[in-house]
């Protein structure tokens, strides 16, 4: 009997079934909590991504409106709220709630700040005492405060008569308004104008750049080793002119920060003549070239190329084929334009180009001239032309998300 009792006691001491059950129960709770945390964490991440995406879109839209300059602060805030709500609705099912976004418009600093707070209720994690998770979201847009020197090569040839010229005037003035808002800007912005047709009307600068006194003010390309560069127009590098040239009435205007005078000059343009686009490109470059400082008045002298806080850029716009050149040894107007564009890009000048209802060959040329695909625009109508110039202005100001 004693032996049987000892055997039974020994068997009981080795039995672990009850312990396993207890351990399994404890581990099941742990597994459940881990799964619950993973699920709730996924809900938090999803909600945060939705809020960030909606706030980013709203901030960029509001920043664009701030640069555009046509809306007041309250209108910009309303625009941002509408963008935010629209993006939240388009994202579909939400796992939580969010506060109405707070929008700050700072015209002096040139930025938009959007704040909101998301709240996600917990599910299984609630068992551990966590009822909800909150996530503050803060995004901002800003634009670069670097100084800007911009030369506009604007097509005023015969094919631009009528509505097209009116569209160009509105688009160019939009760009001026964005870069030079009435509220002012902390950076220095100067814009020069190089309207072109069959030649360039150099106005009061014609005598200096050609070395000829009296006569008309129409100039064309130079010859020699510096024909496609921005070399100072002295000695053998002076520009040419001849009596048989067709000259636009619109004259070159050196860099200026006087918005009303720039817009008035643009409004005065009339159309006529053929298309010497290479001259427009070259003169837009000359306007921002420090090599031409001896030509321009003190207020219009460009800074050196190596000034890192200054953006130098050119906008080359046309509606047609470059078909007028004068010095046969230089090549066609199109080939000269490619050479000029390549040379100014090598100096660090950003070249934007806009094809306005232009044929494919002109589009190809403007793509080659531009500083890249994001610097080239096509426009099929006046509204698209205005949009292109607006986008260029925004790009020049480098509108971006800052956090």
Q: How many helix segments? A: 10
| CATH secondary-structure class of the largest domain | Alpha Beta
Distance between the termini: 83 Å
By DSSP, the count of extended strands is: 13
CATH architecture of the largest domain: 3-Layer(aba) Sandwich
CATH topology of the largest domain: Rossmann fold
What proportion strand? 15-25%
The helix-strand sequence is HHHEEEEEHEEHEEHHEHEHEHE
* Largest sheet: spatial strand order: 9-6-5-10-11-12
Determine the CATH superfamily of the largest domain.
von Willebrand factor, type A domain
Number of domains: 2
Q: How much helicity do the residues have?
A: 40-55%
Which structural class matches the secondary elements? alpha/beta
Largest sheet: 6 strands, mixed
How much is the radius of gyration in Å?
33 Å
Average pLDDT score: 87
Uncertain runs: 1-13
Structure description:
The protein has helices spanning 2-14, 17-68, 73-90, 163-179, 206-210, 259-267, 277-288, 333-346, 360-369, 382-396, and strands at residues 97-98, 102-106, 111-121, 132-142, 147-153, 189-193, 200-201, 218-219, 253-256, 310-318, 350-356, 376-379, 400-401. It is an alpha/beta fold and 403 residues long. It folds into two domains: 17-142, no CATH class; 147-401, 3-Layer(aba) Sandwich (Rossmann fold), CATH 3.40.50. Helix 2 (17-68) runs antiparallel to helix 3 (73-90) and helix 7 runs parallel beside helix 8 (333-346). The protein is elongated and about 90 Å long. The N and C termini lie far apart (83 Å).
